[in-house]
RNA sequence: GCUAUUGUAGCUCAAUAGGUAGAGCAGCUGAUUCGUAAUCAGCAGGUAGUCGGUUCGAAUCCGAUCAAUAGCUCCA
């Protein structure tokens, strides 16, 4: 006898081992694509032969979608095998927004190939082939792939630790694929597949390996859902800062200036100035002292910090082949410079914590393919800061940094869009880092302890640390779903030693402080980019480079509008008049119009009543009001 | 850096098979004063990203290079 408990708490007994799908059938559960057995995702074909908890998984959950998408990726692999005789299979997982499959192909894939494959894929769905699971002995599986000359599959197999265990396969029609599942029961259940694009991707994600062809796709249960998804995708792309930011004249690029070196136009610069003032003021309130340090230094400095050995590829080096001149490098980080403030004289524990901030321009020689609008550039400005503190102060200071970061996110309205990541070192790749294992484990544990005291969900990722210490990274996704670090808070236990930064403790002993590297708002270019995407260009009032546009309907009102502008300007409201050359005109491009929070209309009607008509970009027409009333309205909105 | 795609006026896009560049919007000038993008008339804008090659002739074909886009790798 076995007892199965369901999500609603109900129980059912079965006399013998039974398949998940059979259980669901008996219970009348329909449309489940997999099961969750004691919290583990399992195939509908799984035999249950012990007491357990079980619940159905459907397409409406991400886990469920991934089952569909994984099956879709197998169908794609089958289609590619049908269409390209010499193709070899690599891997094809489901991802958060669909699936991909990597192939080794002799030829490139163009659009026609992709649509041909799409037809083939949907043909396989229509055929509604039964998908069966079977197992093979390890040796048989090796032989199976050797015959097919599938060297990537063989490589995966060779890493199978337990060669005694059977290897799991899934088969549909003639196509069999190494896979641990779970999968749907037939190809027809997938619904419809759209192949989105094809790109290159390195085998095993290693740039030293061969580049394979990757095809991305998505599938839905029906065409309506697919259409909706594709439309949403198009909508999201309209918010792309790289397009919108240029259209709205926040920034531009010039080919002969170079990659990753955007020109910030007046609007973009205004927003960055607002952000920068906001950040510096807030940091000052929180006890930071502002510094301004050089943008470049002799390589000697970087040799001490370790950048010369661990970060040289990322730096712009000057005079490297002139023996008569000092070799200099533009700074990729501010830490070694700002440390000199600490080192200016001897420090006691009474000086700590020492909190320094800087609005620092940095230069990083990113590889040519990495640049992306304002999100990834070669010169950028960071809201940077460093805190030197005693071990006892570390927790409080770290907590304060996190609080500051969250405060900033809250103010920008990005709080719900971010996720947290504890970025650790890679212990299999020690040469990338400075310091020994014990120190790393020690600090990482410390960081984890602090994080666990917060009500904060975070994931841990190996190999994402800085070379000098672990990081708390606050991540965000752009409109393309690509993840980037917005804010980072790092604990460093190495650089103080390298720079011989000491303090004298209460027992008159010399000690090294901990250093926290942190940003409060990340880099301004990137933050601006994400704000444009978040708000589709219609930034909140306090961040809008143009808060008010005055529209005059009669040339004779021009002088009056100038006075109005002056008056609003005195109240620190950013206002523009909609005409150039002192001529009337109420032709405003709609695209720009709905980005401006308020529009004031000034015409004969208003003149008579000595008032203005106000239009809000979202609320539409507001009642006409006196200028003072409008100023109050804006101030009220700004204060909350 | 790698795999692809793209590059024609400020923007969006045209031009049968290589035959010597055209339209809308924006801009400018003038008229119009018309209540929320697109009134009328006129003008001006391009050595086709750049450099080289093939050809009698190249926006179109080839090569190199620069830049942009998506993805990989890398990273704030």
Overview of this structure, please?
With 640 residues, this protein is α+β, with helices and mostly antiparallel strands. The protein contains 19 helices and 36 strands. Helix 2 (62-83) packs across helix 3 (111-127). The chain binds one RNA strand of 76 nucleotides through strand 14, strand 15, strand 28, strand 31 and helix 17. Its cofactor is Zn(2+). InterPro entries: aa-tRNA-synt_IIb, aa-tRNA-synth_II, aa-tRNA-synth_II/BPL/LPL, Anticodon-bd, Anticodon-bd_dom_sf, Beta-grasp_dom_sf, TGS, Thr-tRNA-ligase_IIa. Its EC number is 6.1.1.3. One of its GO terms (cellular component) is cytoplasm.
The CA-CA distance between the termini, in Å, is: 63 Å
Q: What's the overall geometry?
A: globular
- The largest beta-sheet arranges its strands as 18-23-24-31-28-27-25-26
Q: What is the mean pLDDT?
A: 91
Largest sheet: 8 strands, mixed
Number of strands: 36
User: Level of helix content?
Assistant: 25-40%
Number of helices: 19
Classify the beta-strand content into a percent band: 25-35%
Low-confidence stretches: 580-588
Radius of gyration: 30 Å
The class by helix and strand makeup works out as alpha+beta
Keywords: Aminoacyl-tRNA synthetase, ATP-binding, Cytoplasm, Ligase, Metal-binding, Nucleotide-binding, Protein biosynthesis, RNA-binding, tRNA-binding, Zinc
Domain Aminoacyl-transfer RNA synthetases class-II family profile: 269-540
Subcellular location: Cytoplasm
Protein name: Threonine--tRNA ligase
